[in-house]
Amino acid sequence: MTDDAPSTGDSGDTTADTAGGTPEQPAEQPTTADHRPDDGRDATSTDPTPTLATRPPIVNDPLPLDEGSDGPREPGRPAVAAAPAAPARSGLGAALAPLGAGLLGGAVLVSTVRARSDGELDASVFATGVIATVVLLAVAAVAAILAERRPGGRAREDAVTWPGVVGILGVVAMVGVGVDSDERWFAYLEGGLLAGLSALGYVIARRPAFVVAAIGGLALLYGLAFEDLVADSVDGASSVVVGAGAVAAFVVLVTVIGWVLPSRVVAGVAVGVAGVVAYVGILASFIVLRLLGSFFADLGPGLFSGLDVSAGGSPAIQGGGGTSRLATAEGDSPFGDFGFSSSDVWWVLAFAGGLSLLWALASWFSDASGFAVLAVVMPTVTIPLGAAALAVEHPTWWSVATGAAGGVLVLGAALLARRRAATVKAAEQQAEYDLDPAPGPGPVLP
């Protein structure tokens, strides 16, 4: 064949063209053992040790295996779970809804206080509160019906929640002003209205504010039922202890029931705050009674010279380890039974300690800092108040006992934290080892 003859593909350049490939049809890479990188072993070796040549390659999956990612997964990177979608922001409505509800609530409160300030119903003032209440409920209803309900719909929830909660409180207030009844059944009616309407609002919007309002209604019903069914049958000497136990039972009941709701943390923390306030009030009343007893004791027996005490007993103050009350020598108080015994204080402290333990466990299971704060505040406040109510002569022993117990618990928490950190670190290292490819043996030196 001459030099100027056209190439027919049979010349010696065919091998080179085939090896190099053409732009239209790239050449395939050889898959023989000669193409493997030199690892220092013979290609025919039967050594089963995996190397870079014999290990299965990492497949570059072209599909976006990572949910929520913008592109395909990087080679060798394990698939990760999709990140939860961020809740939609409510925008300017987050400021307008609570502010407007607060202004309308102010109008309702003014009407509640002034509508019967002179004994008779002032129709104009009462109508102002009713109109404000109707506007609040109407806005909440329109937002619930017209706005689209979807996950993360914060704009709708804000427009329903704050006007709805304030409107429910306005309904209870306006009904109370309009009826103006002291009957027990009416108190039950108001508590039922508050709890029932708040439960309906929670079903519509699923916001914790309705849970707090419902707890207020349940507390009113619980207190009325306790007074009607239990208080009259309880001895006056132990009424404070029974009341403290009733408070603890209500806190536990609401916390357990609220645990099944999505807003269980808010329900438990809200009723817990009320419990702390109640126990602080009980212990503070003990201190006030002790101060009153000391005051009357300092006035001397002449204060009671005109009193007719049966059996000729003279008034005296009993204190110390017995009863801390203003009493006569026979044990009857000339001013009525308003005293307390030392065992009452210990019972209140025991109930407070039980609630602290409950909140500590709730913090453990829920990882919610609100329960942890309650577990810290309750003993911090009630222990000093209990020591003051008992008028202990050596408070140093109280400090030593509580400090030693707290030190043991804190030290145990530190040791457990260290152990858990080591366990988590070991698990992370194991996970990294499992995800990384197994390294092959290094090159065999001659």
Describe this structure in words.
It is a single chain. This protein is mainly alpha-helical. Among the domains are: 91-192; 230-301 and 315-398. It has eleven helices and three strands; from the N terminus they run ααααααααβββααα. It has helices at residues 13-20, 93-114, 123-146, 154-179, 184-205, 208-229, 239-258, 264-299, 342-366, 369-390, 395-435; strands at residues 315-318, 323-328, 340-341. Strands 1-2-3 form a three-stranded antiparallel sheet. Strand 1 (315-318) and strand 2 (323-328) form a beta hairpin. Helix 6 crosses helix 8 (264-299). It is flat and about 65 Å long. It starts with 12 loop residues before the first helix and ends in an 11-residue tail after the last helix. Mean pLDDT is 74; it is low at 1-24, 26-45, 49-84 and 304-338.
Which secondary structure elements does this structure contain, and how are they paired or packed?
Blueprint: H1 13-20, H2 93-114, H3 123-146, H4 154-179, H5 184-205, H6 208-229, H7 239-258, H8 264-299, E1 315-318, E2 323-328, E3 340-341, H9 342-366, H10 369-390, H11 395-435
Antiparallel strand pairs: 1-2, 2-3
